[in-house]
Write a structure and sequence with these properties.
Helix content is 28%, strand content 27%. It is an alpha+beta fold. It folds into two domains: 5-48 and 147-217 and 330-390, FAD/NAD(P)-binding domain; 84-141 and 219-327, D-Amino Acid Oxidase, subunit A, domain 2 (D-Amino Acid Oxidase, Chain A, domain 2, 2-Layer Sandwich). Helix 1 (13-24) runs parallel beside helix 5, helix 1 packs parallel to helix 9 and helix 2 packs across helix 9. The longest helix is centred in the N-terminal third of the chain and has 21 residues, at 56-76. It is globular. The two termini are 39 Å apart.
């Protein structure tokens, strides 16, 4: 494909890891970021990384991502992954039986370490779980990331490998020749390339308009995270080892540091296609940590306390942060060439899973760049992973079931 020049648009975790991967493959890479590295959802993520999904291709892709992040630590000299595990908990028999079926799918996809624990076995391993819980699925190699290290060290590696990063450089227009993009313009100049890659996720609908790309069904939804001060019967040592816990109602939490619990809970929301960077930090009424006992954070806290009673004795909710999910109808991303622009790759729509998808996204980007066209499957550590679940234009027949 020509001189192998690539422009990556978007400087979050996906963008910097895609740029790094292409540089390692011999491409000349320019990364364009509208604000600053990590200015979008990457700096506001709960940063969980798990392999427990209901889509086989995602399970395989996330196995690759976990392995990547473990080895990335040696490359950058920083530990970016804490493998405390993920623990999904269930309170009724029907949902528990569905969970057991998903574990079978996950094991068949190579996730041998995931386990389904009935009540007694569950409480033997996690004695702080409520007796009302029927069972739980646990994968010890899941965990959570340190996102600032990922995009910060990732950007440093891009520069070390010879890549160019321009910040405060939003793409404002594009020049086309037939069904290809020739160049894009920013306040910092015009950039020609053979390949353009959209890594703007929740911003992708507006990016597509500028680039002349296909309109994809991606809806930006506001999501919140709250922080609770540790106290009571859960000591520091026990707390530090706790996995990311997902309650039967979908409230989730994990240790943020030695004395703070991060907690989130998806809620009914309307799409905000015209949101701004500042809107990322706007807290709507009823979602702030100091909004009272009827507010969402207090209700989420009390809900989690029903699942892990010790959390109910924590000292209180101390802070709130927020950002946007770029959500697709089936909660699976789009990873492929744009149907309207033959040299535009769309790597967007992660539905809250962008940080964990980052390495897999970068691998897919490299394979697509080398092929110059969409692929039916991609080799991942010797195993072909079909791209049907991520294809642009797919029917949304299989929605990812494990979304938080």
């Amino acid at each position: 494909m020509g001189s192998r020049r690539a422009v990556v648009i978007g400087g979050g975790i996906s963008g910097v890891l895609v740029a790094r991967e292409l540089l390692l493959a011999g491409w000349q890479v320019t990364l364009l970021e509208a604000a600053h590295i990590g200015a979008g959802s990457s700096s506001r993520t709960a940063a969980g990384i798990r392999q427990q999904f209901s889509t086989e291709e995602t399970v395989r892709g996330m196995r690759y991502s976990v392995d990547f992040y473990r080895h990335f630590a040696a490359e950058v000299g920083e530990v970016v992954l804490q493998q405390n595990g993920y623990l999904f908990l269930y309170q009724d028999q029907s949902s528990w039986e569905s969970a057991i079926s998903r574990v079978k799918l996950q094991k068949a996809a190579g996730l041998s370490e995931v386990v389904a624990l009935e009540n007694s076995a569950l409480r033997a391993q996690f004695p702080w779980v409520s007796e009302a819980i029927v069972g739980g699925t646990f994968c010890p190699t899941d965990g959570f990331l340190f996102p600032a290290l990922v995009y910060g060290e990732g950007a440093r590696r891009v520069r070390e490998l010879g890549g160019q990063i321009l910040q405060s450089a939003p793409v404002t227009s594009a020049v086309h020749q037939s069904d290809r993009i020739v160049s894009v313009s920013t306040p910092k100049g015009r950039f020609e390339a053979d390949l353009f890659l959209d890594c703007t996720n929740a911003w992708s609908p507006r990016t597509a308009k500028v680039l002349g790309g296909t309109e994809l069904p991606i809806s930006p939804f506001k999501r919140y995270l709250w922080f609770i001060e540790r106290d009571g019967p859960i000591d520091r040592e026990t707390f530090a080892k706790m996995p990311l816990i997902v309650s039967p109602s979908g409230v989730y939490c994990r240790p943020e540091n030695a004395n703070s619990l991060m907690m989130g809970w998806a809620h009914e929301a309307t799409s905000e296609p015209d949101f701004s960077y500042d809107d990322q930090d706007t807290i709507a009424p009823g979602f702030a940590h100091n909004s009272g006992t009827d507010a969402m954070p207090f209700q989420a806290w009390m809900n989690m306390a029903e699942t892990v009673p010790g959390i109910g004795e924590f000292a209180g909710v101390t802070a709130t942060t927020s950002g946007y999910y770029g959500t697709t109808p089936d909660h699976n991303p789009f990873l492929g060439f744009d149907p309207r622009q033959r040299n535009l790759v769309r790597l967007v729509g992660f539905s809250g899973h962008g940080a964990m998808f980052g390495p897999f996204t970068a691998l897919i980007a490299r394979r697509l760049a080398e092929a110059g066209t969409d692929l039916t499957s991609v080799d991942v550590d010797g195993t072909p992973v079909r791209m049907d679940a991520f294809r642009i234009g797919r029917e949304f027949s299989h929605a990812e079931a494990m979304v938080i």
